[in-house]
Amino acid sequence: MFDFLQDYDLAGAVWTTVQLAVLSAVGSLIWGTMLAAMRVGPVPLMRAFGTAYVNIVRNIPLTVIILFASLGLNQTLGVTLGAGGDFKTINFRLAVLGLILYTSSFVCEALRSGINTVPVGQAEAARALGLGFGQVLRLVVLPQAFRSSVIPLANVLIALIKNTTVAAAIGVAETALLMKEMIENEAQLLLIAAVIALVFVVLTLPTGLILGWVGKKVAVKR
Amino acid sequence: MTAVSVATEDKAATGELVVLNSVNKHFGALHVLQDIDLTIHRGEVVVVIGPSGSGKSTLCRTINRLETVDSGSITIDGKPLPAEGKELARLRADVGMVFQSFNLFAHKTVLENVTLGQVKVRKADARKAEETARALLDRVGVGAQADKYPAQLSGGQQQRVAIARALAMGPKVMLFDEPTSALDPEMINEVLEVMKQLAEDGMTMIVVTHEMGFARSAANRVVFMADGRIVEEATPDQFFSNPRSDRAKDFLSKILHH
Ligand SMILES: Nc1ncnc2c1ncn2[C@@H]1O[C@H](COP(=O)(O)OP(=O)(O)OP(=O)(O)O)[C@@H](O)[C@H]1O
Ligand SMILES: [Mg+2]
User: Fold this and answer.
1) What are the CA-CA distances from residue B81 to residues A4, A80, A180, B65 (Å)?
2) What's the whole-model pTM score?
3) How far is it, in rounded angstroms, from Cα B67 to Cα B69?
């Protein structure tokens, strides 16, 4: 029944999906944290930038962002992200870039919700001890904020894993593109859908369970 | 162990430690502090009392600049409060603050709460800081809880840890903003006892509280505030048995007859 799978490189496609997800997760965690720092920081210009960025980017469909990366950045402006003329690599990198730009806005908001769970009294007590602005953030506010952001961040990560399928729109050979190919060539529609669904459940379910457990474990008791 | 007797060496010395000079503060249109003049001498214990919204908390918070003032000056041990930055941080370290809601660092153990400021602000050696912290925790009677997290302690225990955390900085003056009003009745005394002991040891203290027993037994002076002004200043005995202003009479009749 599953014979048809032998004609396709399912493992390779899943591996590409995993790479897309991991690279984008790391990138958006970094950029998202920077955005969050801008949004809670004291510099008005940075606050304005952070707020504008998040509100614009998270309201644009991911497909549009990824297509823009491909058509706008690459084909119009000639950005290749250091991949020379290798189209496969260029598209993969553009997809990662698009996913990072998009997902970081959600990471930022997850972190900001975490920061908002830290009562102002915590920062006040820290200031009253004589800790400086940076120390207050680093020693008292952010450690508590990260702990209560684990679960919202897990949700962002799960959404990101599923969102990697949008990379198919610019021809990245990940799982969803393979699915399209299989559907075109085989008559096993339901079976194909079931296999692909299973792949994503296998990727997302443990992510959710593990991070859910971690989130409970590190939660700050008040 | 010497660090534990934080304030005793100041006992003999007198002189002005905290001086507020025509301090004014607004929150928008609300004039919360109006021409406040207040001098607190070394070793003195001053209780601030007054109706809700009269500006008692704001007064406390301006003294270590958690709130800025609009005009007037505040000096601590002869030094005016700096605007921002390192100088201000150093000055804050000299002013201990105890909050109504304890505000212990929730992600740190009791011991870490008491060592954090010593290590990060006073640059104390970690072992020395722990020694000081354990001695202070013993002194306020929560030595056995050192490795627990704040949420595992009762309110009274948390507030005593908060006092130890402030004392660990070796402050020149301690501010208490209604330290017992978030506590269950049976825990109020254990905190007041610690504060009384501190007063006896010669610590300079500014205490916002409605605990008359504490004011009578530990305070040198009562400052009565209403509508952002200091309406009356007197010894505890004078104030409670023979208040001069109508505002104070009115206020006392309300808190005494409930
Ligand atoms: N951050 C703030 N922004 C605006 N108004 C404030 C702020 N903090 C306090 N106020 C107002 O200033 C006035 C004085 O407040 P403050 O907290 O100093 O009073 P208080 O004497 O401590 O009262 P309580 O006994 O209720 O604690 C109140 O009317 C309060 O609503
Ligand atoms: Mg108050």
Assistant:
1) 78, 56, 69, 8
2) 0.83
3) 7
Q: How distant is the Cα of B1 from the closest Cα of chain A, in angstroms?
A: 21
Check CB contact under 8 Å for B116 and A129: yes
Tens digit of each residue's pLDDT (9 = 90 or more) over B190-246 = 999 999 999 999 999 999 999 999 999 999 999 999 999 999 999 999 999 999 999
Task: Please report the ipTM that was assigned to this predicted complex.
Answer: 0.90
CATH architecture of A9-218: Orthogonal Bundle (1.10)
Cβ neighbour number for residue B233 with a 10 Å cutoff: 14
pLDDT (0 to 100) of residue A131: 94
Contact B222, B233 (CB under 8 A): yes
Which positions in chain B touch A122 (Cβ < 8 Å)? 103, 105-106
Average pLDDT of chain A, as a whole number: 91
| Closest by Cβ to B106, choosing from A128, A132, A222 | A222
Nearest to B33 by CA among B230, B251, B246, B177: B230
Assign B87 a pLDDT band (cuts: 50, 70, 90). confident
Judge contact between A29 and A107, C-beta under 8 A: yes
Residue B101 contacts A, CB cutoff 8 Å: yes
Q: Which of B49, B57, B255 to mutate to test the pocket of ligand 1 (most atoms within 8 A of CB)?
A: B57
Domain parsing of chain A, residue ranges: 9-218
In the block, residue with structure tokens 């001498």: B41
Which residue of chain A is at minimal alpha-carbon distance from B113?
A126
Residue tagged 């001098």 (tokens): B39
User: What separation in Å is there between the alpha carbon of A51 and the centre of ligand 1?
Assistant: 30
B92, B116, B166 ranked by CB distance to A139: nearest:
B116
Q: Which residue has the tokens 């995993």?
A: A18
Instruction: List strand residue ranges (DSSP E) for chain A, in order.
Output: none
Cβ–Cβ contact B93 with A under 8 A: yes
Kindly report, residue by residue over B52-76, the tens digit of the pLDDT.
999 999 999 999 999 999 999 999 9
Spatial strand order of the sheet with B204-208 comes to: B95-98, B173-177, B204-208, B45-49, B221-226, B229-234
